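Re: [ENG-882] Designed sequences occasionally contain unexpected residues at chain ends

Forwarding the minimal case from QA. Structure tokens:
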């Protein structure tokens, strides 16, 4: 591999990382964490699923009991990000 291609790869990686970091800081909002709801019909897999989702939420310069929505979406895998967008109560639009 030639030197210019290696430098180009490093530049693309660095620019992508900086853009994601700056976008999370400037465009992301600190949102309150939804308190887990408990019901008599809850099962173990549901509560386990909530614990897995809550472990993927990123605080990223937000105070306690809040999370940064952009940092949470950017820093997780695609599967987790899509799951959080469509199946989690803490991501409220509007």
């Amino acid at each position: 591999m030639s030197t210019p291609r290696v430098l180009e790869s490093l530049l693309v990686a660095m620019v992508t990382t900086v853009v994601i970091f700056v976008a999370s800081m400037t465009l992301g909002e600190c949102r309150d964490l939804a308190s887990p709801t408990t019901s008599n019909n809850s099962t173990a897999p549901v509560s386990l699923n909530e614990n897995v989702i809550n472990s993927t939420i990123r605080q990223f310069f937000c105070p306690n009991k809040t999370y940064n929505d952009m940092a949470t979406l950017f820093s997780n895998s695609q599967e987790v990000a899509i799951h959080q967008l469509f199946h989690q109560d803490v991501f409220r639009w509007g």
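QA comment: On inspection the terminal residues look reasonable. The mean pLDDT is 79. Proposing we downgrade this to a documentation issue.
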